[in-house]
Design goal:
The mean pLDDT is about 95. The protein is α/β, with parallel strands linked by helices.
Amino acid sequence: MQALVWGVKPEPWEAPDASNRLLAGLARAPMRLEDRDVPRPPADDWAVARTRLTGICGSESKQVFGDFADSYNDSALAGLFSFPMVMGHEVVAEVAEVGPKAAGLEIGQRVVLNPWLTCRPRGLEPCPSCEAGDLSLCWHFTEGRLSAGIHTGTCKDAPGGFAEYLPAHRTMLFPVPDSIPDEVAVLADPVCVSLHSVTRHPPPPGGKAMVYGAGALGLAATGLLRALHSDVDVLVVAAHPAQAELARSLGAAVVGHEPAEAVVEQAVAWSGGVLQPTPTGVPMAHPGAVDVVYDTVGTSETSEVAVRVLRARGTLVKSGVNPPARWEWSPLYFKEISWVGSNAFGVEAVDGRRQHAISHYLDLVAAGRLDL
């Protein structure tokens, strides 16, 4: 089979002088297309699936373009990956081989991947985080029968969907109903990331939420807010006209993403806060009226704007991944804002029912409550 492998010496080629960022980035990435053997199940409770469709996560594009290169050695997560790797964790696939203990799977079954390489895939007894359903907080991402890796595509022993076939533990594959096409099922991972953000840090009844970014995570958060919290007003910060149009179709108000002063001013006007000008730089809302900001971009600039528009004791939820950088965070302590991380997904509660986030997503789509 063919696989796009990252963490290897690339094939030498020169990008044309007029190349866009994609071609220029690919020309210098440590990545190449290789012929590999079709993977076998690493244990009896694993299966192998044939890739049908794979999304490109924002974290993967940043990795390919080298956005983390300057900060990699300082990253506390650097020890949780192993190379070379085949990326691709947003995957719809078809079961091709089933291990003798991979109960519940059938050859030819269409499935969506839960990529997290937690205790059970590693052949270990569940840790306290896994027992609680907090799969992305597993204690054992470097232990057991697999090399280090937090999820499929970050572990050299668990290649991902940028290949024709990939291995997966039986608990990592969720059957897709016939009524849901591949193009909808492949959104499960990014939607579940935002489902985790919204369910763990919900807006108050009748409140106001701002979604920073209108890519896959941002639009998913917007759709989920409309589906689960229909009484909440939603403002989306969108960078591109097509994103703005999609956000409006989901019932949100929309503002542009720059300049920062305009974002703050428009968000404060929309929410009903009071704008406090500063001698130089970006103004601040105080009192503010935005209850929660879901930051799906996660840069220093988006963090700085978010804390300026939030109300006192509001919540900034960071799910976007970007390299570290300095930002002016005095509103964080002045307004006693809660700044919380939101990492992927696991077992979540929706409408009082606890189950895996992917099951919630498929149920919401099947019921016609979420259409992205």
